[in-house]
Amino acid sequence: MSMQTPKARTASVEVTQRTSPSTAKTARKLRTSGTAEVDSVSFPNPASRTPKDRSPKVIGRRSPQSPAIEVALFLLKSPQMLLRCSLFLFCKTQQKRPGRMSALEDQLAQLQEEVRAAKEQLSLSESLKETSQQEADEVKKQLAAMSEKLEKTEKQLIERSDSEEARFLELRKISQDKDLEWQSELEVVRKQHELDSAALASSLNEIQKLKLQLDRVADSEAIQVRHAESAHAETESLRVQLKETLTLLEKLQNQLNKSKESEAAVLEEVSKAQLELEVAKMTGNTLRSEGLKAMEA
After folding, report:
1. C-alpha 50, offset from chain centre
2. pLDDT digit string (tens) for 149-183?
3. Residues 6 or more apart from 116 whose CB is under 8 A from it?
4. Is the pLDDT of residue 191 over 80?
5. 178-209 per-residue burial string, b: 16 or more CB within 10 A, e: under 16
6. Whether the Cβ atoms of residue 74 and residue 49 lie closer than 8 Å to each other
7. Which of 11, 69, 174, 219 gives a 20 to 30 Å CA spacing to 192?
8. Other Cβ atoms closer than 10 A to 8
9. Per-residue confidence at 71, pLDDT binned at 50, 70, 90?
């Protein structure tokens, strides 16, 4: 019982407190009828246990255990034997202390509950061991596959090393040839760049000269524009004056036309008066001649 954890002991005490009357009755029956049988129980040697009770082998190094621990482990793995031992201890205690029957019955029920908890714990441990073993086997398989793949890769690398080295030398020679070619091309580009720089400097000088000329032309055009604006203003002024003069001439022409019309009328009247005067003169002359003729006669 020394192998149990405090948690298992607490659970055992709680289960003992909730033990039903049927468990107590069973303990009483075992007390009366099982004393003789328990006396004849012999503890088997843990070394002579059958392969059926043996636990699965655990890979790895195990620490040495004392005989008491081995017996305890054997009892935990054989619940039936543990129950028999518990009954034996119970009957021995009953014979020595008959006045503490109820306490012994409670202890028996507690032992039974501990046996059940130990079985559950053992089952869980076995399940965990199987799972761990399966995982270990799977890891071993993966490691074996990876090792085989690594060996194949190493062989391929060894096989390709010679060809890769030759390829590397070829690529290095090609790279050197390319470097020489690029250097020559770079020299040509540098010379061309120098020529282009000289041409660019000359072009910049020409552009500067053209810019100065353009500034002069712009100044001249500005002066011409100012002169043109002044001439345009003078032309507009002359145009206004001409318009006013034309208006005045039209008025004078109208007045002249009216004067001409008046003059023509006057001349016509003068002509009529002259005609009348001539007629009057002719009439006077005629009358005068007739008077003279009359006087002569």
Report:
1. 67
2. 888 888 887 777 777 777 778 888 887 888 888 88
3. none
4. yes
5. eeeeeeeeeeeeeeeeeeeeeeeeeeeeeeee
6. yes
7. 174
8. 17
9. low
In which residue are the tokens 């021995």 written? 92
Orientation angle between helical segments 79-96 and 67-77, nearest 10 degrees: 110
- Is the Cβ–Cβ distance between 53 and 77 less than 8 Å? yes
**pTM over the 0.85 mark:** no
Lowest pLDDT segment from 10-19, 174-183, 199-208: 10-19
> With contact defined as beta carbons under 8 Å apart, do 91 and 31 qualify?
yes
Dist. CA 42–CA 85, nearest whole Å: 9
- Closest by CA to 11, choosing from 121, 88, 129, is 121
Q: Which two tokens stand for residue 219?
A: 């100044």
Report the amino acid identity of residue 35.
T
Burial code (b: 16+ CB inside 10 Å, e: under 16) for 14-30 equals ebbeebeeebeeebeeb
C-alpha of 232 from chain center: 69
**pLDDT tens-digit profile of 136-146?**
888 888 888 88
Contact 1, 112 (CB under 8 A): no
Sign, CA dihedral 178-181-187-191, equals negative
Tokens for 186, please give them: 């770079």
How far is Cα 34 from Cα 40, in angstroms, rounded to an integer? 10
Q: Measured between alpha carbons, how far is 41 from 79 in angstroms, rounded to an integer?
A: 15
C-alpha–C-alpha distance, residues 188 and 196, integer Å: 12
Q: Please, are residues 74 and 81 in contact by the beta-carbon 8 Å criterion? A: yes
